[in-house]
Design brief:
Blueprint: E1 2-7, H1 18-26, E2 29-32, E3 50-53, H2 59-72, E4 76-80, H3 91-100, E5 103-107, H4 112-120, E6 133-137, H5 151-154, E7 160-164, H6 170-181, E8 186-191, E9 199-204, H7 208-215, E10 221-225
Parallel strand pairs: 1-4, 1-5, 2-3, 2-4, 6-7
Antiparallel strand pairs: 7-10, 8-9, 8-10
């Protein structure tokens, strides 16, 4: 028996990996985070599969499902949104499985920030404008941020910031980042990427908070901040430059 942690992507049912889909098709038990993973994602599960929406369960109740599957000798597809390595709440589940001696593996998925960049037709690493992306969040009702990972510190890098779980904290984000990035710094808010009601708000640190309020967004959104979001007059990369030689294209 094995538990398969599966990244199901940001929402669209065709953005799951082939491996992830095959695991769902073969596992007799499927646990999925119903608040973030569409039920349609489980349509390929076996007809007699036990399908459980874990959005209303506690960690202990989820672990109990793992233990029940172990007793019955049934593999489990544990389906999470996006990629499990980013704000997936999988670490504590893995710790419990380690304690119980239950085997598990992880299948990566399309992270929401990458799906948003694709929908926006943006490259987030623009030559000589921005070569660093920082995925982070702010403290709200969830666990506190570790020392040194506050926006005022991270923002000193000038990197493109992708701020998760913080759309209700925009005033604080502006206060901490405006002195570093400027009030006119481009901001894009990506709401429910990959879902039918997907939405993008474009603005700056100065005006994006009002746009968020007018749109009524309060959850399920990421905030992109950085000069690279509106870069235009950047140089071409060296990768395809005729003057750049490498082992596959020698001079």
């Amino acid at each position: 028996m094995i538990v398969h942690f599966i990244g199901a992507g940001p929402g669209a049912t065709d953005l799951i990996t082939v491996r992830g889909l095959r695991l769902i098709q073969t596992c007799p038990v499927c646990l999925y985070a119903g608040s973030l993973v569409p039920a349609e994602m489980l349509a390929e599960a076996p007809k007699d599969a036990r399908i459980v929406d874990t959005s209303v369960l506690t960690l202990d109740e989820i672990v109990a499902e793992f233990e029940k599957a172990q007793r019955e000798g049934k593999d489990v597809a544990r389906v999470h949104s996006g990629d499990p390595s980013i704000y997936g709440a999988v670490a504590e589940q893995m710790r419990r499985l380690d304690e119980l001696g239950i085997d598990y593996d992880v299948t990566p998925g399309v992270p929401a920030f990458a799906a948003a960049a694709a929908a926006l037709k943006k490259e987030l690493t623009v030559p000589e404008v921005c070569q660093t992306i920082i995925l982070t969040r702010t403290s709200m009702k969830s666990s506190a941020m570790p020392e040194g990972e506050d926006l005022a510190t991270l923002g000193k890098s000038g990197a493109t910031l992708v701020i998760h779980l913080s759309v209700r904290n925009m005033q604080r984000i502006r206060t901490e980042l405006a002195p570093l990035y400027g009030e006119d710094c481009p901001v894009i808010v990506a709401y429910r990427v990959g879902w039918p009601d997907e939405q993008f708000l474009h603005g700056t640190l100065a005006d994006i908070e009002d746009k968020i309020k007018n749109a009524g967004l309060s959850r399920s959104a990421m905030i992109f901040v950085g000069r690279g979001l509106s870069a235009d007059g950047f140089r071409d990369s060296a990768l395809y430059n005729k003057g750049h030689h490498h082992s596959l294209r020698p001079g």
